[in-house]
Design brief:
This protein is an alpha/beta fold. It has one domain: Vaccinia Virus protein VP39 (Rossmann fold, 3-Layer(aba) Sandwich). The chain has 8 helices and 9 strands. The protein has helices spanning 7-17, 26-43, 74-80, 117-127, 167-171, 188-192, 196-199, 204-218, and strands spanning 48-52, 66-71, 85-89, 102-108, 128-139, 146-148, 155-157, 179-187, 221-229.
Length: 230
Amino acid sequence: MNRCENYVEHYRNDAEKFDYFTNQDPTDKAYEKLFRKFLLNLSGKTRKVLDIGSGSGWTSFIPHEEILFVDLSPKNLLLLKSDTSIPVLADAHHLPFKDESQELVVASEIIEHLNDPSMAAREIWRVLKPGGKAIISTPYKEKLRYTLCIHCNEITPWNSHLHSFDEGGLLSLFPDRSRKEAHIFGSKVLVLARAPRLFKNLPLWLWRAFDLTLVKLTDKAQHLVVVIEK
């Protein structure tokens, strides 16, 4: 498989063609609401947030005084501008921030897309303040699928996902001296049964009581989330 060297252009074109700001499927919307509650619980109290690969900017639900939205798409960043946000056109492999300058770093559903996840992890660690926290989420043990591009006649991964991670693989990207924890979230059994639509407005602990039990029994989850503390 040939990998396009100009991935920046790819993701800018991607933002022009696909709408990441609306989601019409009721089950997906309900699941996202539960997943965001979970990430909010992990984020703790913070004032400054750095969101890498911000997409629709859904991390703005985290209470903050200032949030830095980093993305490769000028279109997406223009839509995210607000009184408390700063849009930054940048690449996760080369973050334009000083060492140890960020209090909370969130990289949600991005690391599986990157040419070099290890390089991005080093950048996250570099900009993270001592005592700061990074939250990284990705599909859990995703089986990567490929198709043949009708234009270039090259094998192409679905959804532009280049990597699949389990707990050990994702945690290993960060220094051993860091404090690390891994969580698996979103039983595929419950999602297929459309259960998130029933649980979305109930306390998160009630969802997790069912969710975590089924995840442990089946080892089939939607998401892996790791928390790194410096």
